[in-house]
Amino acid sequence: MWRGDDVAGRAAPTARLWHAVRWDVRSVGRAAWAALRGPGRERDLLVQSLKAAAAALLAWLLAQVWLGDPMALMAPWVALVLVQATVYSSLMQAARQFTAICVGALVASGAQAVTGDTTGALALSVPVLVLLSNWRRFGDQGIYAATTAVFTIATGTVSGAAVGHRLGQAALGAVVGVAVNALVLPPVHLRDVRENLAALAREAGEVLHTVAGDLREGEWDAGTASGWLDSSARLQSRVEALRSARGWSRESLWLTSGVLRALHRAPTEALPPEEQDERFGRVTGHVTSLTRTLAVAADEDRTPAAPDAAMLSRYAELLELFGDACRAEGDRLLNGGPRTDVLRDERTEAVLRELHGKLQEGMRDAGRDAAHTAVLGTLILQAENLWADLDGGARVR
Fold first, then answer.
1. What is the rounded distance in angstroms from the CA atom of residue 396 to the CA atom of residue 383?
2. 132 Cβ partners below 8 Å, 6+ apart?
3. Per-residue pLDDT reduced to its tens digit, 252-297
4. Which residue, 285, 293, 296, 88, is CA-closest to 204?
5. In whole angstroms, what is the distance from residue 55 CA to residue 186 CA?
6. What HEC string does 342-392 produce?
7. CA-CA distance, 33 to 37, in Å (whole number)?
8. Beta-carbon neighbour count of residue 139 at 10 Å?
9. CA distance 118 to 306
10. Could you say which of 34, 113, 225, 320 is the most buried, measured as most Cβ atoms within 10 Å of its Cβ?
């Protein structure tokens, strides 16, 4: 028995490792298939990676083959790291990195001249440069000051001519990296905003449909409500991802809206308006408040109590209609096309108003029980808020 337990204990880490390897392999396969299948984040990543490799190769050819510089390594190194997520960030990183390389080369040369010894020059310059690399003006490029000093001192090329060659190669690499990033399929992250916004709308619809289904079945409890809260928390994470994507998209349009677009080197596709971000941010807030209200009602240790099953069934119908509207908005945002007001269809609006009227009647009937009234009133308020935000100028009467 003991030997069996011991074997099982040793096999468990191996099984977990094998599972992790299989998961990673499948993830790589899915990413590769997505990149081949059509436009998307995976293809954008592939394009940026190939551009970085091409920039490094081009810088090497210019420095080593055309110019015949014996210190050509610096040019491809700089070009490789300057193919950034946006053209603007490439320029900013180029300025910071080139400054850091200049500082590192000059400090290394000075330290070598003062000490006359490789070890002494390293001991004198590297601590100062590592500390200086934390200066916020360098951003995340400050470490290149220290690495340049190490490379300069270790190779023994600290003369004025060698330093000049190294700085010239760094400048060449910066020019190549920025030019390749700007002129060859410049990264403009419009798709990220559209995909995140569409995903937020669809996922909000999924949460509403899930809540509606559980309410209709009538067998929900605190555990079920906890699952709803987890789903709404994921919606909040999607909102944060949308905000980040909006920032990247805004930055990626800097320096690409003039000359590059005139040369047809940058897309002219319009971003979804920021009002849509705010709108679905409010929808997410209403869904979160709604699930929190139901979670409180499901808690046996709390005073508020859930409405009766008949009222919750009607409420579930409302949530399903709102979920349908969210899904339709998600499809429209992803695929383009004019907006269709799903909730303003005559039949849908009639159902919505009938259900809303029955819910109000139920709230008046529940007046004798303050606990039920509090929950039902809060749920109706959240439904009205959802209706107002999902259906442009509509107002619940």
1. 10
2. 103, 138, 142, 145
3. 666 665 555 554 444 556 677 888 889 999 999 999 999 998 888 8
4. 285
5. 13
6. HHHCHHHHHHHHHHHHHHHHHHHHHHHCHHHHHHHHHHHHHHHHHHHHHCC
7. 6
8. 14
9. 77
10. 225
Closest CA to 269 of 282, 285, 280, 256: 256
Cβ–Cβ contacts within 10 Å for residue 37, how many?
A: 10
**Which residues have CB under 8 Å from 311's CB, separation 6+?**
358, 359, 362, 376
Classified as helix, coil or strand, 220 is coil
Radius of gyration of the chain (CA): 30
Q: Which helix (H) or strand (E) holds 200?
A: helix 190-217
DSSP letter at 117 equals: S
Contact 190, 257 (CB under 8 A): no
Separation between Cα atoms, residue 291 and residue 231, nearest integer Å: 9
Mean pLDDT of all residues in 84-106:
81
Q: Which residue has the tokens 């900013």?
A: 92
Report the distance separating Cα 104 and Cα 125, nearest Å. Answer: 8
pLDDT at 207 over 90: yes
DSSP conformation class of 334: H
If 0-12 CB within 10 Å is exposed, 13-18 middle and 19+ buried, where does residue 104 land? Answer: buried
Q: Distance (Å, rounded) from C-alpha 259 to C-alpha 272? A: 23
Q: Measured between alpha carbons, how far is 325 from 276 in angstroms, rounded to an integer?
A: 14
Say yes or no to pLDDT of 158 above 80.
no
Q: What distances in angstroms separate CA 72 from CA 53, 55, 62, 278, one per listed residue?
A: 16, 14, 9, 50
Confirm if 204 and 319 have CB atoms less than 8 A apart.
no
Confidence at residue 64, expressed as pLDDT on a 0 to 100 scale: 84
Q: Which two tokens stand for residue 385?
A: 């808020």
Cα four-point dihedral sign 220, 221, 227, 230: positive
222-253 vs 190-217: helix crossing angle, rounded to 10:
170
Task: Name every residue whose Cβ is closer than 8 Å to that of residue 209 and which is 6 or more positions away in sequence.
Answer: 319, 320, 323
Q: How far apart are CA 34 and CA 1, in angstroms?
A: 48
As separate numbers, helices (DSSP H) first and strands (DSSP E) second, the chain gives: 14, 0
CA 16 – CA 185 distance, rounded (Å): 41
